[in-house]
Design goal:
Layout: H1 3-29, E1 33-39, H2 58-66, E2 68-70, E3 73-74, H3 80-89, H4 93-96, H5 121-126, E4 131-135, E5 155-158, E6 190-192, E7 195-198, H6 206-220, E8 226-231, H7 253-274, E9 281-287, H8 314-317, E10 321-324, E11 333-335, E12 339-340, H9 343-351, H10 368-371, E13 381-386, E14 389-395, E15 398-404, E16 414-423, H11 439-454
Parallel strand pairs: 1-8, 1-9, 2-11, 3-12, 4-5, 4-8
Antiparallel strand pairs: 2-10, 5-6, 6-7, 9-10, 13-14, 14-15, 15-16
The chain binds magnesium ion.
């Protein structure tokens, strides 16, 4: 064969030899997919793998058995709006203005929302080439400028605020906590991107539709890295389950709703396995705050933890936390280190090799050493805020309460001087004040609280601006 005829073949052959290892290397370097599954008002004690005796959650139990289950995982706030802002930005809500002492969350008449200069996980990951979707309850502002599509998400399907808002005229008293609610009692819209596609949203099928949309997004995005944020509308009241789950759970309607969410998690993990993506995807399941106790049988359980949603007692903020990543996370590990939803920001950005913003305080830490068991956890302390006020601080096993107040009781806030001190290892239910026995610990936590507060500059609240009455 003359050389000039052979040369192109030789060239292609050499190119192949060079190109092959490169594409393999590129594949190896592909950053992992991130999936955050976020329940609403699910308590610490509401899953089988966290000890619930009658709610059946085989898929979440399996996820925990195949992955890592946290015993001391905290949401960053005891109510919806600030908790969500903190998860997506890695910042305490007092710093972003997404909390308030007058209005705990955003309502349909609110005009504020997550400020444009906040950086969300979705924005940071989209800058790294990720496909991004928010499928579920947003609750960070429902005006167009505040929607997920303006905060880094390519796609959005879901309700813009809580499912008990937008009461229809003639709403029965106590309707949201009833065990026989009607769709028409609330005029909650369902949005696709920025357009309302259904109103009132058929809440019976929300979980089902979120799941289908998520599975479609996973399939569609399989060729590039993706970030899926799935904040379920349930089990926040009013409770609605689809036909296949209604009347099935020994725990009643609340159990039906949690079991349906469990089924949804099972479908999402199955889709990741089927698409061959499981070994390159971190899935994290948690809840935005503790159970809404005044809803009685329509609300959840914090297990042996004290109080629930709205409060800074453990039941308000300590929530289930399950991490899953086959072959990367050691199966069946129970992690007792402190960790928080705030940390998902740093963890997701680090996995995506996106820089952690250096122009603002970030309250999260990187969970990779814990997830991969390569070192100790970076979180030494946790700060419990109610609105803009620091109520309690945990350091190691000790928690000091400077102020206490029940989540939804009519009691006023009580200031404690000296603070109450509990050893959460010995006394997870916060029953036995040990302040007098451990003055040194109390002094150290008090110093740390003062130091922390000196570094916090509260932003103007986004939750207080409302439309003028019509
Ligand atoms: Mg909530």
């Amino acid at each position: 064969m003359p050389l000039q005829r052979f040369a192109p073949t030789l060239f292609l052959l050499l190119l192949g030899l060079v190109a092959l290892p490169r594409s393999a290397a590129a594949k190896a370097r592909r950053p992992p997919n991130i999936v955050i599954l976020f329940a609403d008002d699910l308590g610490y004690g509401d899953l089988g793998c966290y000890g619930h005796p009658s709610i059946r959650t085989p898929h979440l139990d399996r996820m925990a058995a195949e992955g890592m289950r946290f015993t001391d995982f905290y949401s960053a706030a005891p109510v919806c709006t600030p908790s969500r802002a903190a998860l997506l930005t890695g910042r305490l809500p007092v710093r972003s203005g997404m909390t308030s002492d007058r209005r705990g969350v955003l309502f349909p008449d609110s005009t504020g929302g997550l400020p444009q200069d906040e950086i969300t996980i979705a924005e940071a990951l989209r800058n790294r080439g990720y496909a991004t979707a928010c499928i579920g309850k947003w609750h960070l502002g429902h005006r167009p400028q505040h929607l997920p599509t303006r905060h880094g998400f390519d796609h959005y399907l879901g309700v813009p605020y809580s499912n008990d808002m937008d009461a229809a005229p003639g709403l029965p008293v106590g309707a949201s906590g009833r065990l026989d609610p009607e769709i028409e009692w609330w005029n909650v819209p369902l949005l696709r991107d920025e357009a309302v596609i259904e109103r009132p949203a058929d809440q019976h099928t929300l979980t089902e539709r979120y799941t289908e949309e998520s599975v479609r997004f996973i399939r569609r995005s399989r060729s590039k890295p993706f970030f899926l944020y799935l904040p379920y509308t349930m089990p926040h009241v009013p409770l609605f389950a689809s036909k296949g789950y209604q009347g099935k759970s020994p725990r009643g309607l609340y159990g039906d709703v949690v079991e349906e969410m469990d089924g949804s998690v099972g479908q999402i993990l199955a889709a990741l396995r089927k698409e061959g993506l499981a070994q390159n995807t971190l899935v994290f399941f948690t809840s935005d705050n503790g159970p809404w106790l005044p809803q009685k049988a329509a609300g959840g359980s914090a297990g042996l933890l004290r109080e629930g949603k709205g409060s800074t007692w453990e039941g308000g903020m300590r929530v289930p936390g399950i991490a899953w990543w086959p072959r990367r996370i050691q199966p069946g590990h129970i992690e007792r280190s402190l960790a928080s939803t705030l940390d998902l920001f740093n963890t997701a950005l680090s996995l995506a090799e996106a820089p952690i913003p250096s122009d603002r305080p970030i309250d999260g830490v990187d969970l990779r050493p814990l997830l991969f068991r390569t070192g100790p956890g970076a979180r030494q302390s946790f700060f419990y805020y109610r609105g803009t006020q620091l109520y309690a601080v945990r350091r190691g096993p000790y928690k000091a309460h400077f102020v206490t107040r029940s989540g939804y009781g009519r009691d006023a806030a009580v200031k404690h001087d000296p603070p109450l001190l509990f050893h959460l290892g010995h006394d997870p239910s916060e029953q036995y004040n040990v302040a007098a026995l451990s003055p040194d610990v109390l002094a150290e936590i008090t110093r740390e609280a003062a130091q922390h507060q000196a570094g916090v500059v509260p932003a103007m609240s986004q939750l207080e601006a409302v439309e003028p009455p019509k």
